[in-house]
Specification:
Oligomer: single chain
Distance between the termini: 33 Å
Strand content: 5-15%
Structural class: alpha/beta
Helix content: 40-55%
Strand order of the largest sheet: 3-2-1-4-5-6-9
Shape: globular
Number of strands: 9
């Protein structure tokens, strides 16, 4: 279903990005794997017979060079997956993360998407096709307990994807934003062989659903479908939703203090 397509994936050296690289390649795509970790990028690129690029997505020049490398190797980029992300839980109150942590979240979760779109849109608009896929989070629709910087910037990522869709769907460009809950990846200190259950998905399961969403040209891709119900509840009764989230936070704090906390994904 992606035969002959040129695909670029940031954060492609592990987790969802690596699973997407394998999924695209298995379906006939040419894949450019980008990661800050050079060894990880090369390992996945070798697995999928693709090309590896070391790139810091906070740097616009790096993103431009990434796209140019992919163009030289595989032709114009058909699908760009802005997947790179990070998580640095706040040390105390909701404003306690240092300025550089807030700035890091902003650069990785928002500006990297802007840099990719800025570099790709002129060509995509000219040819009348292309697909930008911005990986955000359910935190960008709801919230993440204990990480205000992550939540705020993921909300911004969703908003930017909406702006892209509003402005450029009529140019023939497809826009998708991916908003998963917890997925077993290194981002949350879990490995690919983590045993998953309940609301915790494996990276392969998440990638499968994301690929289906891309084929369907869905704007909102929810690997955890229940997120749509949570969003509806939040929209209808925001006060009750906040009350529920405060209850989850109290339980999270209590279990953290007593050493009973084992599965953070219960609190998403």
């Amino acid at each position: 279903m992606f035969v002959g397509k040129s695909v670029v994936i940031t954060g492609g050296g592990s987790g969802i990005g690596a699973a997407l690289a394998r999924g695209f390649a298995a379906n006939g795509a040419y894949v450019c794997v980008c990661d800050l970790n050079e060894d990880a990028a090369h390992r996945i690129a070798t697995d999928v017979n693709g090309v590896a690029v070391t790139c810091d997505v906070r740097c616009e020049t790096d993103v431009q060079n990434l796209i140019e490398t992919a163009r030289k190797k595989f032709g114009d980029v058909d699908i760009f997956i802005s997947n790179a992300g990070l998580a640095k839980p706040e040390p105390a109150h909701a404003a306690s993360a240092a300025n550089d942590v807030w700035q890091l979240n902003w650069e990785v979760h928002v500006m990297s998407h802007v840099y990719a779109a800025r570099a790709l849109l002129p060509t995509m608009i000219k040819r009348g096709n292309g697909h930008l896929v911005n990986v955000a989070s359910a935190a960008g629709l709801l919230n993440q307990i204990g990480d205000a910087a992550y939540s705020a910037t993921k909300h911004a990522a969703v908003s930017f994807a909406e702006s892209l869709a509003i402005s450029h769907n009529d140019d023939g460009i497809d826009i998708s934003v991916v908003c998963p809950q917890y997925v077993a990846t290194p981002l949350i200190k879990m490995s690919d062989d983590t045993v998953v259950s309940g609301s915790l998905l494996s990276a392969d399961d998440a990638a499968h659903q994301i690929l289906n969403g891309i084929v369907a040209k869905d704007f909102m891709i929810l690997p955890h479908p229940q997120v749509a119900d949570y969003c509806r509840f939040r929209g209808v009764d925001h006060a009750s939703w906040l009350s529920g989230m405060k209850g989850l936070r109290r339980k999270f704090v209590r279990e953290s203090e007593t050493g009973e906390l084992k599965d953070m994904h219960k609190f998403v």
